[in-house]
Amino acid sequence: MKLLTKINRSYFKYGILVFLIADVIIIAMSNYFLREEIDQQLRLEAKEIFEVLKEKGEFQSIYPTDIATPISSSENRTTIKKDTLILDLYQNELTPYREFTTTQSINEKYYRITTRQMLMEFDDIFTIFTTLISSVLLLIFIGLLLFTRRLNTSLWKTFNDNIEKIKSYSFTPPSKLELTATGINEFDDLNQVLSMMSSRLEKDYTATKEFSANAAHELQTPLAVIRNKCENLFSDSDLDEKTIKTIREIYLSTDKLSGITKALLLLAKIDHGQFNERDHVSLNQIFNYWINAFQDVIQDRNLQVSLSAADNCQLLMDKRLANLLIQNIFVNALKHSKNGEEISIYLAEDYFTIANSGEQAINQPEMIFNRFYTESQNIGSTGIGLAIVKKIADHYKIDINYSFKDFKHLFTFKLQNC
Questions:
Q1: How many domains does the chain have?
Q2: Is the pTM value of this prediction over 0.90?
Q3: What is the pLDDT of residues 231-248, one digit of tens each?
Q4: Do 304 and 260 belong to one domain?
Q5: N or C: which end of the chain has fewer CB within 10 A?
Q6: Phi/psi class of residue 406: alpha, beta or left (left: φ > 0; alpha: ψ in -120 to 50)?
Q7: pLDDT in the model for residue 379
Q8: Residue 402 is inside which H or E element, if any?
Q9: Could you write out the three-class secondary structure of 97-141?
Q10: Residues 361, 381 within the same domain
Q11: Is the domain of 287 the same as that of 231?
């Protein structure tokens, strides 16, 4: 949830609370002041009736609002203010009135003077004031909302621009995080912290990148020397069978170590975002290329490779990574297929599958994309090919699913940007 949305919801939530409290208070106060005003008017009317009685000696009562009644001196002569209900004969319902009763003496005669004024019913008062308060608070809320949006346009514009810069920021040179000053202390402090953090991360990124490249490069030289020495030893005719076997194991292990070094360097480059080019690549063409490239292996092992395509999917990705993805997928299928078996590849509109034969399912399928994990004892396997596949797939949001059915390992790749 955005901050502004949360603020507006808080305005609305507390606005309702304020409305309810204000509604009760205003209605109570209005009711009080209304009665005070009515009581004042009733006193004046009673005074006028008294003056008429004093002047004329009689008063023509008007029921139910103005009444003057002679009473004996022994009757109660207290002044009373109260609310009362009187039956309206025309509408046949009880109507609320405010009543003021007082007793006056004129020429030793006592009169009870009663004045009344019709009151608004509570429902009417509640409806009028609630509507009025709701309208005022609604106008205030709309005004605050418009004011907040306009204020946010100016206050938050620079902040939002900086957010976009952070989203598009990359450690890859010549990119550099340069945030615009907002003029607001808290935001400027945050900009300063982010700039310092990005500078440290850039240095760490550069150091890690240089270390990976240098380590891979420096390791290749001694590995090449070891391979050359092994090749020279193979040409020596005085070696016995045991020595030749040992040299062969050294050579193969050296070759495997060289492959691991190159693979680790490749993974580091992917992590560092060094493959950022985007082109439309055809999976059909790439699969055909690698099938032809490994044609000798396929024929020597009498493998049957079938490629069927319901749609020629064009992926938007780096061509080098696309080739590495398909190469490692296909090589993995070749390595784990028995001679004379079939490898089937199917390309659809938004996914593709590759299946190869197998005797049983993988014991730990959730581990097969981890680096150096392998369930095969094949000495030529580095255990890193599927890790490269997983890294490339994650980079382009390609979902991978493994299943085993009818003695076949099936890998399904669900594509997002095909």
A1: 3
A2: no
A3: 888 777 777 888 888 888
A4: no
A5: N
A6: left
A7: 44
A8: strand 399-405
A9: EEEEEEEEEECCEEEEEEEEEECCCHHHHHHHHHHHHHHHHHHHH
A10: yes
A11: no
